[in-house]
Amino acid sequence: MAVSKVERLMNLVICLLSTRQFLTAERIRASVAGYEDSVSDEAFGRMFERDKNELRDLGVPLETGQLSRFSTTEGYRINRDRYELPDIDLARDEAAAVAVAVQLWESPELTSAAQSAMLKLRAAGVQVDPEHSPAAVTSIPARSRGSEPALGKLLSAIDAGKSVRFTHRASPTAEFRTRTVEPWAVVTHSGRWYLVGHDVDRGDVRTFRLSRIGDDVEAFGRAGSVRKPDGVDPAAVVARAAGTGDVAGTARVWVRDGRAEEIRRLGTAAETRTVAGVTGTVVELSVRSWEWVARVVAGHGADAIVLAPDDLREQVIRILTVVADRDGVGGVSGVGGTADRDGAVISS
């Protein structure tokens, strides 16, 4: 498959930026994808001259020099000091946009071509500078790369204004369930990707972590039928769901002495209280996400008991009931605990 002119020029820039040494035209021809299509030396010479002129017209500081002081052979490289941009002051929203672009560029999908070019350069004997190479892949957690299979399909559906159907699981150990969503946006938060949209099945605005969406995303419906409502900030929706938005309220949770350190770290000790003969501490929590706090409390079983508010207590009961039914325990006995306002145990 023939390499386009734009791709060839990009490969040439990567090649000349990836080394401090001057490279001969012959080595560039053997190393840069796109020049192998030249049918003769004359054809390559004409193509290479046009490419050099075009790079210079674009402002790329292409230099010509001898390979060494003992050689008269001419070579080429890009002056990196002149090529790199000076420090730029970005506003908060501009910095966020650049960060997202960097994460996408560093994803496996978009770095495969650059990696291939770097391997070819090394194989040809070119001394690649890994620290400053524009094609070097940063070792960042996979979760912060745009590597989820669903990403491309979801972005296409959002651009087309179509609904999507996919399988999703609420946690790494939960079963996949089919969801039908009117997608509004894909945003990043704390290094993770989230889909924000209207969940048709639940009739509410929901967020879905992309790493928990299956690769079976299917767009359907009339193009342009889905659009984000005015006034909705997808980033704020994700922040609230992830528990980092504005404080939504306060909860009081009893924790057994020596246990549930995670809950202790999240709040402030208010008083010591004995519940069902067990000594513990009442912790007051500032809650940003009721759903997240409910999962944290339920995860500590009988070592953490919700005293208030009622809605959080009921949410924990629902979580424990689902776990008990799944494991065949029967009720919530032995799985966890909740309590009324006076600390009397309802179930434990």
TrEMBL record:
InterPro entries tied to this protein: CBASS_pafABC_assoc_protein, WCX_dom, WYL_dom
Protein name: WYL domain-containing protein
Taxonomy, superkingdom: Bacteria
UniProt domain WYL: residue ranges: 150-214
Residue ranges constituting the WCX domain according to the UniProt record: 250-320
